[in-house]
Design brief:
Radius of gyration of chain B: 22 Å
CATH architecture of one domain in chain B: Orthogonal Bundle
Oligomer: heterodimer
Shape of chain A: elongated
Number of strands of chain A: 17
Largest sheet of chain B: 2 strands, antiparallel
Radius of gyration of chain A: 30 Å
Largest interface: A-B, 56 and 37 residues
Strand content of chain A: 15-25%
Number of domains of chain A: 3
Strand order of the largest sheet of chain B: 2-3
Order of helices and strands of chain B: HHEHEE
Structural class of chain B: mainly alpha
Largest sheet of chain A: 9 strands, mixed
Shape of chain B: flat
Strand content of chain B: 5-15%
Strand order of the largest sheet of chain A: 3-7-8-11-1-12-13-14-15
Chain lengths: 479, 97
């Protein structure tokens, strides 16, 4: 059997983080009751006129600059015509002839450390469609236009990827860039980032591309990997059995593990694009472009290098923390307050990660304040609470963002540093546990651990175990 | 008329536009479309070398809105435009990919 190579290009739709829709002043807030964020513009009423949201252009420019694209300084919108009930105008306002960004590239890094450049063909701005809900009882569909007119950018890659690993690395790279820009939250599961996979196979060494199919409905990294494997196999089977691959759009069903063709031949994809007459051209001056460039944030790679140098934290830690812009912000803001980068990093790397896993939370969902984490670190360093109590208090900060100083006060969690009081307790423990004392005196130094444990129990965990250990040792050695 | 529209073309354009035309209407549409293309051919005789393609008839550019919410919930009024409504939504014939 011949050896096959998979050739993959991606069309990635990203919902921009604007407050309002692309062509009207309706809110883009997620989760409103159906059609409560609608107006004559986004429901396609005759006579209504779109007016472009300036922030959409600036986000698109920022993403283009960050992905090394050329910005089209003389750009415009076009109409893409098709009939579907989620599209009330019977056309989508998009860009075909003069997309805002072209000819870009990003570098991806694979598991084994190899680097590869993925070309970006273009990035264009467009509007999202409404949502169709299929009614269970009546033979009808219900249309909610809250999402209609939400701004999107579509990032079209070159067919430069060869495996699911490369696809996921590329998506992750885009996600990080866009999240760092604040241009979108890029959640695959919630649909604010959606990827369509264009895939073809060809014999290794062949210069010609095979016929490609486009796969839709991929809403997790795992689904993308499975769909790529499934489609590759389907196309190879077709070729091996002497049939040919048909250029078509297919919908991936992740639970069933196969794809099926979406559009029938009669509905040929002929969108009859033409320049959008309701919108005037966009001229991006050099000054405007420079202004957007000057506002570009520090990106992940630069942050990573700075963390290693400025904060002297290990590369691994810096990588994990900068994996999410939100977590990097928490890190930097906390360090700015307490100036203890290693301790902050430690709280993020150990306890935060553990609790995120236990509560199935993403880094973007962390809701505790840097102030409270900094206060907790100070409480530990001042010897006010011990390590175990600190973990307990951190869980409260993590979940409810409580003020640790108040919490420790209210719940009487302060470490017991009353030496005389401790001495009385320890003397009692020593006299109650002659066996341990004997073991210790006979050279089993570990026996002291049991006594320390007893003392911690007696003080309800509020004592400083290090102090207790030292005190017991002194008391025993004196005997 | 220099441009002749074939039966296949008029059929295809009808499908794209979701229009069902009678035979008489098809003949009329073929004639109309042919003469439109003749008119474009006439324009094509013009030498446009060095002329920037025009994307809009008005000499206006960069008309923007700031990203500020200006519309409130106006669902009741919006739904008056719906042929039929149900559960706060526009009701349409069942449509599945």
């Amino acid at each position: 059997m011949a050896k096959y190579e998979t050739v993959i290009g991606l069309e990635v739709h990203v919902e921009l983080a604007t407050k309002t829709k692309i062509f009207c002043g309706c809110s883009t807030a997620f989760g409103g009751a159906p059609n409560t964020h609608t107006c004559p513009v986004c429901t396609g009423m005759p006579g209504s006129l779109p007016v472009l949201n300036k922030q959409v252009v600036e986000y698109a420019m920022a993403v283009g600059i960050a992905t090394n694209c050329k910005i089209t300084q003389n750009c415009k919108f076009d109409r893409k015509n098709y009939f579907y009930p989620d599209n009330p105008q019977n056309y989508q306002i998009s860009q075909l002839y003069l997309p805002i960004c072209r000819d870009g590239r990003v570098e991806i890094e694979l598991e084994d450390g190899t680097k590869k450049t993925i070309g970006i063909h273009e990035i264009h701005m467009e509007e999202d469609a409404g949502k169709l809900i299929h009614d269970e009882w009546d033979d009808c569909s219900l249309v909610d236009f809250n999402r209609s007119g939400v701004p999107l950018i579509e990032i079209v890659s070159e067919p430069d990827m060869r495996s699911a690993e490369e696809v996921n690395a590329y998506l992750d790279k885009l996600r990080l860039i866009i999240q760092y820009l604040g241009a979108s939250d890029c959640k695959l599961q919630e649909g604010s980032m959606r990827a369509d996979v264009n895939l073809s196979v060809r014999e290794v060494g062949s210069k010609e591309f095979g016929t490609r199919t486009e796969m839709k409905n991929l809403n997790s990294f795992k689904a993308i990997a499975r769909a790529i494997a499934g489609e590759r196999e389907r196309q190879i089977d077709l070729i091996e059995s002497g049939e040919s691959v048909i250029q078509e759009t297919r919908r991936w069903d992740d639970t069933k593990g196969y794809s099926y063709a979406m559009r029938s031949k009669e509905d040929a994809q002929d969108y009859r694009y033409f320049p959008e007459p309701d919108l005037v051209p966009i001229i991006i001056s050099d000054e405007w472009l420079d202004e957007v460039k000057s506002r570009q944030p520090e990106f992940r790679y630069e942050k990573l290098e700075r963390y290693k140098k400025e904060y002297e934290i290990p590369e691994y830690d810096a990588k994990i923390i900068t994996e999410s812009k939100h977590m990097a912000d928490i890190f930097e803001d906390t360090v700015a307050i307490c100036n203890k980068p290693k301790k902050v990093s430690n709280w993020l790397m150990v306890e935060t990660m553990r609790l995120m896993k236990a509560h199935e939370l993403e880094a973007e969902e962390l809701s505790f304040s840097p102030e409270n984490l900094a206060k907790l670190i100070e409480l530990v360093d001042a010897g006010t609470i011990n390590g175990n109590v600190a973990k307990e208090v951190f869980e409260k900060i993590f979940l409810d963002n409580i003020d640790p100083v108040d919490y420790v006060d209210k719940h009487g969690l302060k470490m017991d540093n009353d030496v005389d009081g401790l001495k009385v307790i320890l003397e009692k423990i020593i006299s109650d546990n002659p066996q341990s004392v004997e073991d210790y005196n006979n050279g089993k130094k570990k026996a002291i651990g049991f006594l320390v444990g007893q003392a911690m129990k007696e003080t309800k965990g509020k004592a400083n175990p290090g102090v207790i250990n030292k005190m017991i040792q002194e008391m025993l050695d004196k005997n | 008329m220099a441009n002749i529209i074939s039966d296949e073309t008029i059929e295809y354009v009808g499908i794209l536009a979701k229009l069902e035309l009678s035979d008489k209407e098809k003949e009329q549409a073929k004639k109309d479309m042919g003469s439109m293309l003749d008119y474009i051919d006439k324009l094509n005789e013009l030498d446009t070398k060095g002329v920037e393609p025009m994307s809009h008839v008005f000499p206006v550019h960069n008309v923007f809105r700031e990203d500020i919410v200006t519309n409130n919930d106006d669902r009741d009024n919006i739904l008056k435009n719906a042929p039929e409504e149900k559960d706060g939504s526009f009701m349409v014939p069942k449509t599945v990919d």
